[in-house]
Amino acid sequence: MEREKILEARIGEWRTYLRRRQAIHPVDVDELEDHLRTQVKTLGEAGLDSDEAFLVAVKRLGDLDSLSREFAREHSERLWKQLVVSPAAGEPLSAGNREAMMAVGLAVAASIAVKLPELFGLKIAGPQADTSFYARNFSLFVLPFLAGYFAWKRGLERLGLYRLAAPFVAAALVVNLLPFQPNGHTEVLAALHLPIVLWLAVGFAYVGGHWRDHDQRMNFVRFSGEWFIYYSLIGFGGGVLMACTEAVFKAIGIEVDAFLQTWVLPCGIVGAVLVAGWLVEAKQSVIENMAPVLTRLFTPLFAAMLLVFLATMIWTGSGIDVAREVLISFDLLLVLVLGLLLYSISARDPQARPGVFDKLQLLLVIGALLVDAFALWAIAARITEFGFTPNRVAALGENLILLVNLGWSAVLYSRFLGKRTSFAPLERWQTIYLPVYGAWAGVVVVIFPILFGFR
Amino acid sequence: MNISKDLVAASATPLVLAILSEGESYGYAILKRISELSGHELQWTDGMLYPLLHRLERNGHVEATWGESETGRRRKYYRLTQQGVEELASQQRQWQIVDSTLRGIWFTTVDAVTQGY
What we know:
The complex is a heterodimer of chains A (455) and B (117).
Chain A: H1 2-19, H2 26-45, H3 50-61, H4 64-74, H5 95-115, H6 131-154, H7 158-177, H8 185-206, H9 214-251, H10 257-283, H11 291-316, H12 324-347, H13 356-386, H14 390-417, H15 424-451
Helix pairs in contact in A: 2-3, 5-6, 5-10, 6-7, 6-8, 6-10, 7-8, 8-15, 9-10, 9-12, 9-15, 11-12, 11-13, 12-13, 12-14, 13-14, 14-15
Chain B: H1 5-21, E1 25-26, H2 27-37, H3 49-58, E2 62-68, E3 74-80, H4 82-115
Antiparallel strand pairs in B: 1-3, 2-3
Helix pairs in contact in B: 1-4
């Protein structure tokens, strides 16, 4: 009996070992296991004890490297990790299928939601389009569904559901009841910042309500990056599809432009949010994450760009022009740097020793800090000269928030490089800081309009 | 005697097809049969049979079904298809040509040796 158990344990180990081979699929492992067991049994009948029989049987199967090479030669497609959307033949209908149905169902629901206001005369596209209404509400048509998807998937409790619903309801009330001046500054700012607040609310659902858990927060950061990449890819594909559609219909003299603008585009934009979210969840363990790879690629390039920019600015002695577009591009640049920082942190093995890439990262952060400081200087000068406007204050706040994050990150990074601390504080600092973005975005959405009289 | 790797590999497909033409079988039994037929002269690394079976399956020479072994475990059985039968016939012809060619030349060389050239 004891021997049986040991044999089972050994076969179990062997199985797990075999499963790690990409070219050998679980069904093949089953087949090989059947072979192994028959061999062990035959050898046992010939007089070997189970231990010896196991060793001989494993040896006869051949060494794993050449075996998996042989499998790879036969099944070369397996070396490309496939995200199989439909379950493989012979496997039972998995939970994955149910999830796919849910995601697609919610995508359809979001598409309906975004088209619903048209029934009440609020045109989504065309000359009479109510851009002001759609700009304010757009994230409300889709993010509640994404949050709902995760609430369903994570099995959120009733209390968690109330907490999750609260920001969405509050947001809907604020953006629709406050007397915004159509297309005014505060309205544009609110439309830009609301998705940030609601994205964090999605995060609350993503982490299954455990928003205090810093590891979970980091997982949400990873999710966000991957989601962004998938969404961009889907968006790109959608764009190609629409362009083709328009072109072929034009060839037979039919204009489908209006149909594409009013139906395909809005439904595609909201539906893709859910599909991308589901894809990231489905492929989590199947495919290498892309965000860290892109981070590796672009960190040195961005660092170089920032340094060249700073050098040029100092050399020519020209200050930053504080037009609105310029401020926005600076904010975008800093957000990108922050993203690069965040994703390299999220993908880094905390145990690894400081390396060249960490030094590059520090260089990037310091470059961004200097640029941020210059931008802040320019904004502050503008404000003292011409007074407060919603745009300037929003830019000021964002730059300050990024400055604090990047500054402390730089301190932590240099401590880490100086081997005075581990990597963990850096990771922790980023996850601690996450709610700050949400809070500031919330202030811009709710307080700014009141403060600046809905201009 | 040690048979060269290339020769083992070349003879693998006709051997497996021929064994399956005797009836449905599975990996372990096929290997056992090969061992019996060759008087234990043909030695394979057991695991290598499976990628070969999968290739034959992909090419449509055999078809596979999951059944049960005598102990009730899942076991994959292979059966020759019509296409496999044809493939076996073609392989047989090819091997016969190789075989008769070799015999012919060996016969004359052996003759030559015995005649003392």
